[in-house]
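Saturday, quiet lab. Running sequence design on the structure tokens for the scaffold JK sent over.
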């Protein structure tokens, strides 16, 4: 959000960007419709709503079989069991999953703190993750 040109003044204009993460296309449509019903409270204010959803949600069910295959491969390789998580992120994987292509997001680096000051990757896990990916790609041929 940004507004005005100086502190302690009534701004002539304000801008607000809203980032909404949803679990399904139906929820995405519902939120978009609700946002578009917003109206200003002040009689002299104007509200212009532009934009809209910029990527589909990543539905875990759409990649259930691919995740199961990756999990089986991880077990065969003696790796820690894979854990499925829904984090509400927005990656390029949302586009491929939304187009109907089974997609695993977060299969690569192991770490924590995505986009935060404490973001890090556990480099010791990278060889095992690369091995898992290589076997998964080989199983897809």
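Result came back. Writing it out in full:
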């Amino acid at each position: 959000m940004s507004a005005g040109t100086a502190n302690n003044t009534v701004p002539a204009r304000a801008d607000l960007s809203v980032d909404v993460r949803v679990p399904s296309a139906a929820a995405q449509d519902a939120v978009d419709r609700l946002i578009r019903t917003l109206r200003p409270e002040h009689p002299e204010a104007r509200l212009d709503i532009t934009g809209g959803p910029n990527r589909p949600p990543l539905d875990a069910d759409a990649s259930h079989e691919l995740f199961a295959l990756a999990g089986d491969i991880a077990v065969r390789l003696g790796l820690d069991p894979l854990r499925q998580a829904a984090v509400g992120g927005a990656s390029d994987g949302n586009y491929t999953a939304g187009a109907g292509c089974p997609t695993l997001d977060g299969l690569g680096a192991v770490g924590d703190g995505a986009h935060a000051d404490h973001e890090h990757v556990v480099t010791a896990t990278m060889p095992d993750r690369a091995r898992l990916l290589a076997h998964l790609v080989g199983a897809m041929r």
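Notes for JK: Residues 3 and 13 are 6 Å apart (CA to CA). The chain is about 35% helix and 5% strand. Ask whether to fix the surface positions before the next round.
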